[in-house]
């Protein structure tokens, strides 16, 4: 079945689950469509929520497809139209019930598996997750929504207290950081197949971060516990 049709039909199953398990909390991980955003927004129950990744807030399918196929923009659910991206942004803008929250889905597939005849799905966003969300929220003029989205809504939905830790995000007038073209990591699979010296040292593989080469105007400046004196 076509994967796009399948992702729409999924909502029928979701309805059935909701009816069958009336106390079950359901999170739609990484929504990518206007339909998904609307589904969550209009749901009469407060047991349904959704997470959104930075790539689905920053990009649309043109980033993946125009001018050549770019495997580092390939993730699942696949990036959708600009209309979908904007509808998700609007849902977050108007989210007064705390139904949308952060879910980065950072997927550290090594470069050789991304730049391949059968590329692995996923974007490696973990190096700059908060900065990416800050760029997306600032571009959309909804920075006032970022704290709820990143730190409050998810905890509340799961019946937890928000974290005691604080992060301070700073916006600079000039770009403050360029996302590196690649980083080296220990690759367990490569280590297992490597021989001799390379195996002893643990084989290193390259990861290409999402948005590599782009400049960020946001930085995480401080991480502290609220009980610590500034
Ligand atoms: O849901 C997922 C899983 C992830 C991964 O590879 O870990 N990659 C994706 O693109 N989506």
UniProtKB/TrEMBL annotation:
InterPro entries listed in its UniProt record: DHOdimr, Dihydroorotase_CS, Metal_Hydrolase
What keywords would UniProt list here?
Hydrolase, Metal-binding, Pyrimidine biosynthesis, Zinc
Q: Does the keyword Metal-binding apply?
A: yes
Lineage from the top down?
Eukaryota, Rhodophyta, Bangiophyceae, Cyanidiales, Cyanidiaceae
Can you name this protein?
Answer: Dihydroorotase
Q: State the GO CC annotations.
A: cytoplasm
Offer an example of a GO molecular function term for this protein: dihydroorotase activity
GO BP: any one term = 'de novo' pyrimidine nucleobase biosynthetic process
The answer to whether the entry has keyword S-adenosyl-L-methionine is no
């Amino acid at each position: 079945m076509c994967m796009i049709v399948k992702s729409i039909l999924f909502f029928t199953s979701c309805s059935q689950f909701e009816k069958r398990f009336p106390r079950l909390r359901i999170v739609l991980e990484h929504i990518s469509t206007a339909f998904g955003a609307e589904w969550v927004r209009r749901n009469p129950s407060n047991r349904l929520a959704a997470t959104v990744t930075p790539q689905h807030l920053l990009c649309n399918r043109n980033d993946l497809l125009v001018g050549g196929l770019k495997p580092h923009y390939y993730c699942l659910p696949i990036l959708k139209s600009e209309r979908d991206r904007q509808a998700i942004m609007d849902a977050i803008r108007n989210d007064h019930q705390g139904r949308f929250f952060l879910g980065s889905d950072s997927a550290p597939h090594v470069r050789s598996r991304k730049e391949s005849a059968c590329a692995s799905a996923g974007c490696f966003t973990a190096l700059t997750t908060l900065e990416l969300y800050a760029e997306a929220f600032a571009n959309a003029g909804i920075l006032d929504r970022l704290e709820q989205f990143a730190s409050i809504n998810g905890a509340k939905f799961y019946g937890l207290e928000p974290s005691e830790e604080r992060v301070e995000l700073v916006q600079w007038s000039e770009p403050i950081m360029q996302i590196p073209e690649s980083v080296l990591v220990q690759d367990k699979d490569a280590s297992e197949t490597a021989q001799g010296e390379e195996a002893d040292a643990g084989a290193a593989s390259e990861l290409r971060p999402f948005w590599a080469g782009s400049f960020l105007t946001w930085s995480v400046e401080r991480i502290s516990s609220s009980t610590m004196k500034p």
